[in-house]
Design goal:
four-stranded antiparallel β-sheet; seven-stranded mixed β-sheet; 25% helix; alpha+beta
Length: 552
Amino acid sequence: MSRSRTTGAALILSSVLVLSACGSNASGQNDDGASAAGGGEPVTGGTLVYLEHQAHENLYPPDAGFYPNGGIVNNITDRLVYQDPETLELEPWIATDWQINEDATEYTFTIRDDVTFSDGTPLDAEAVAANFDLYGKGDPERALIVSEAINNYSHSEVIDDTTVAFHFEAPAPGFLQATATINSGLLHPDTLAGSFEDFAPGNSTEVIGTGPFVITEESLGTSLTLTAREDYDWAPPSLEHQGRARLDAVQIEVTPEDSVRVGSLLSGQADVVRYVQAQDEAQVAGAGFDIYAPQTNGVNNSISIRFGHEILSDLRVRQALIAGTNRQEVVDTIYTDHYPLATSTLSSGAAGYLDTSEHLDYDPERARELLEEAGWTEGADGIRTKDGQPLRLIVNEAAPQPRSFEALTLISQQWQEIGVDLQILRADAGTYAQAILDPEQVQLYHSMVARADLDVIKSQFHSQNRNALLNRVGEAPVLDEEIEGLLDAVASEPDPDERIARTQEVQTYLAENAYVIPLFEEPQVYGAGTHVQDFGWESVARPSWYQTWLAE
């Protein structure tokens, strides 16, 4: 199989510079990111009952970063390229071969000729081009966003039925890995023609992909059924299993209550549950069930400091908040060993990781000194004031993140000791969605983002992506042009070594400017019965059901 020299460099970058995507678990694990089988020869058949913490919100692939969305998209779509969840090496899948020009502005893929959508329509280069033209450009009129995984996209070029080229306005070194993400799941052209609402709950059975499962039933907000395609026969060649999925179906049940999810697992009513809370891990493992905690290997679970707010524009205040945060106490009190203490904005398993822990020391006395220097004096109630204004800040509860409210509550107690009043905006507040986009309402943003590529740091902090720092508000100018330029460089530098250097410059800049309080490296924690064999996940820990089977 031929490859250009640039493609080879990309593969080396993935396999050598990026560490394993999977964390420790209670049982073994194969190289394909699946749980090790211990129940004899694989069997075909059966329905797996899977309990999900939250209902999915949309199945448009560029919007699939939310784990309930991505867990579905991952199983109903295929991707051009396969990323091994263990080694993170990029391998052929729907694309049998690819070439990349020297400056990463043109990618050419050869497409398999035996792939069909679940309605029987053949997949060809024209359909692949339609997918990436939408994902790379978006469509504001239909409220369909540009994929955060794709940068500098220009246009596609269909060369013949099995060959498609993609052109970029500037180097796009992350595009090859982008084609392996769930954000680039391949959908039927008719599905692509829909609006945002057509991808929303209630229309899920109309979302047509090429994947091993198809959505056959939906009960709005409560359940979804994925049924195996009998004709599926184009899995990644490196996988041990080929042909149709081993399971007949996966029944996804939305179960928000932690105790109900765990109780259903322990009683045998569920086979696998996502989002086993840290406080429940011992109970699940103690009852003889498996705990899987693959790491997400991207931007760590962190608090982003919106420096454009008047109070937080002072570097000393930002540094004081970091010095006043006992991150180790948060990890030790709220979480388990599956949640390692963060030592940088990026996870230690992410490409380009740089240890910046020297900027993260807990030193409450230094925090008090910095606040005094910044003019914030302690009041009678212990909360500092300046010019009659209390040192009061608001942080959002992040419902998708594990035990967000408990962690933020502990941090608020720590900050009280240095004279800071931290208020928590609950995720179910009616104005929540708008509030988190307004630095006057939410000054500290609790979040994370997973992607097994260097571009992940741009996805989180660039003003045109997730904009976690609110470096730009609405149509206003960018506040910090330097961080914006550093993030652009990460996504546009074709040389692999230089791209890593740019990523490390971003981490250093964020640390030196006290823009982020990294908390922990976030896993996805699953509980499963021991009869569940070959339970797997993709590169950032979304479930993959293709190889899974149920032992007798």
